[in-house]
């Protein structure tokens, strides 16, 4: 019985919606709600987009660390594992960066940046459900109002039909206005809360980026003495010159 009742209500709402499009039934509008709903949708879109980009950023950090380790391994294969002291230090450094340092960064990033945004996004479906319920209640109210107007325009032989229809319409109006009032009051509160909610995550994002950059810089500084750029450049230039003398490189 409950299933049939729900199906009947959905069919009635669909019919009311079609009649509204045709201009046969009045459409209840609340401009204040419409304005607040537009603001909410804009916030929702931006927060979901931000959350998506934050995830991409974290994935990019992981990908960078993995790529660096792969490069060091390929370099080892390239020189047939005859690694210089600098290459050994470089490989150990990248293993550490992709290990404990990245894992620590990943955990802090999830706890202070990603999880708060994910929780905020998790509230949006409940708000959308409330907005859908409001829309349904508005259709119910418009449908009952249309019945009352029809009975006024064409009175029934039964004198009780109009009072009963008016009572049902009033109940539908109360249900609609109750939910509409809640949304009109709560939507702007949720929108206004976005800045103080996101600010700590944004601050954590900046601090974590700075911390990671400083750690990377300090770690690479520790091994820079193993490399002498000017000497290595001169050696590379000499080797390239020797390569140019090879027949396979065009000297024939």
UniProtKB/TrEMBL annotation:
GO (cellular component) term, any one: Rvs161p-Rvs167p complex
GO molecular-function term, one example from the UniProt record: lipid binding
Any coiled-coil regions, as ranges: 33-60
Annotated ranges, domain BAR: 18-236
Key words, A-Z: Coiled coil, Cytoplasm, Cytoskeleton
Gene3D superfamilies for this protein: Arfaptin homology (AH) domain/BAR domain
Gene Ontology terms: biological process: actin cortical patch localization; endocytosis; plasma membrane tubulation
Subcellular location: Cytoplasm, Cytoskeleton
Protein name: BAR domain-containing protein
Organism expressing this protein natively: Phascolomyces articulosus
